[in-house]
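A common beginner's mistake is to predict each chain separately and then try to dock the pieces by hand. The better habit, illustrated here, is to supply every component at once so that their relative placement is modeled jointly.
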Amino acid sequence: GAVVSQHPSRVICKSGTSVKIECRSLDFQATTMFWYRQFPKQSLMLMATSNEGSKATYEQGVEKDKFLINHASLTLSTLTVTSAHPEDSSFYICSAMGPNTEAFFGQGTRLTVV
Amino acid sequence: AQSVTQLGSHVSVSEGALVLLRCNYSSSVPPYLFWYVQYPNQGLQLLLKYTTGATLVKGINGFEAEFKKSETSFHLTKPSAHMSDAAEYFCAVSKAAGNKLTFGGGTRVLVKP
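With all components supplied together, the output reads:
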């Protein structure tokens, strides 16, 4: 199946700093990418949907100025957590979808803000 | 709006026993339905999906699910559990191909030897 690579898998950062997470589709063109957040022992909550070349569409309650999403190419989307705080600590997962494909998920990124 | 309910946040089965994970959905349009598996600290892997056609869908690792429109259900089964089936399972629904997924709360499966 198609491969989606998410990097880094784990990151620890200091409170107040920014962290960038990358999501790459390795063998298909991802016209749409989704970013999810998953709290421990909970389900995935959609944060935003991004289409290549367009601004991301954020779900209600998600701060777009805090969670910056860029989808500048058909193979790369990035999520930047700006001015991170301990409450931003979570597991972040991306998924990518092509024009006629199902959604493929990255391996996830465990963010810990100290 | 769409929603997904997974009955039972935890399921414990013996190795070799039947695995049954329940999923009910609500959707205003004919749904696309999915089951995913998640191992610790990893992303999601698609087990199977229903879009149209045959209501009994076979997936990877011996899993299958049946779409029952009258019951708005899409329960996941596996005849004989294996230790490697211990993981978190998520049911999801979308309105169409290319649309965002709405996930259920997840069911953690524990397999006892």
